[in-house]
């Protein structure tokens, strides 16, 4: 069975010098098949799954302490690691300074 409520992990970054500034603009990293924008049609690649997107779904049901890999992913995204970024649909900081 599946849940009736949809919880989701969203990873965002900002170029703001002060991320606590209310005027800071936060930009979302989009994944290839993870649910996100409700207007986007679903990604069907059956019987396969994009593993990272699949893990993000399960991470939404637990804490980050139970999913330490998500902290490492965030670090790789902050460092603009090409191998990690290749797993994503879009990099909002492409061609710009790292978040």
Automatic annotation (TrEMBL):
InterPro entries for the chain: LMF, LMF1/2_C
Top-rank taxon: Eukaryota
Any GO BP annotation: protein maturation
Cellular component terms (Gene Ontology): endoplasmic reticulum membrane
Domain called Lipase maturation factor 1/2 C-terminal: residue spans: 2-97
Name of the protein this chain belongs to: LMF1 factor
Organism whose genome encodes this protein: Nothocercus nigrocapillus
Lineage of the organism: Eukaryota, Metazoa, Chordata, Craniata, Vertebrata
